[in-house]
């Protein structure tokens, strides 16, 4: 029974990942992200002090958060309204764009 559940769970995960890969379009995501730039910046580096950076964030995380805002499971005055207008395709495209942005982190020189 446990082996069947593991196979089923693995199969569902693969199906979700395959759906995500097929649905995403980075270039469309870049165009759609223009409306996000007022808070999250044109390259996903926040310009608003209370907005998170999205550049380099995992697409799965971005998709989960946008879906939570859209469904009302996660509430934020502005994001709940924005996400309510997004289709599944919009969400996948936006997530693909933000994930594709490469972020380089540099540790401070402590010497």
Set out the fold topology:
Elements: H1 2-23, H2 26-32, H3 37-40, H4 59-71, H5 77-84, H6 88-100
Summarize the structure.
The chain is an all-alpha fold and 111 residues long.
Task: Explain how this protein is built.
This protein has 111 residues and is mostly helical. The chain has one domain: Cytochrome c-like domain (Cytochrome Bc1 Complex, Chain D, domain 2, Orthogonal Bundle). Helix content is 60%, strand content 0%. The protein is built from 6 helices and no strands. Helix 2 crosses helix 6 and helix 4 packs antiparallel against helix 6. The relative contact order is 0.17. The model has no long low-confidence stretch (mean pLDDT 88).
Feature tags:
mainly alpha, Cytochrome Bc1 Complex, Chain D, domain 2, 111 residues
What general form does the structure show? globular
The biggest beta sheet is recorded as: none
Approximately what portion of the residues adopt beta-strand conformation?
A: under 5%
Number of domains: 1
Distance between the termini: 57 Å
Low-confidence stretches: none
CATH topology (fold) name:
Cytochrome Bc1 Complex, Chain D, domain 2
Assigned CATH architecture: Orthogonal Bundle
- Secondary structure: helix percent: 55-70%
Structural class: mainly alpha
């Amino acid at each position: 029974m446990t082996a069947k559940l593991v196979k089923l769970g693995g199969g569902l995960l693969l199906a979700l990942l395959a759906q995500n890969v097929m649905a995403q379009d980075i270039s469309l995501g870049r165009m759609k992200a223009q409306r996000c730039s007022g808070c999250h910046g044109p390259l996903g580096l926040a310009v608003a002090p209370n907005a998170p950076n999205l550049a380099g964030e995992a697409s799965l995380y971005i998709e989960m958060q946008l879906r939570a805002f859209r469904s009302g499971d996660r509430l934020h005055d502005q994001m709940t309204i924005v996400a309510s207008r997004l289709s599944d395709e919009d969400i996948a495209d936006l997530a693909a764009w933000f994930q594709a942005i490469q972020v380089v982190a540099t540790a401070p020189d402590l010497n």
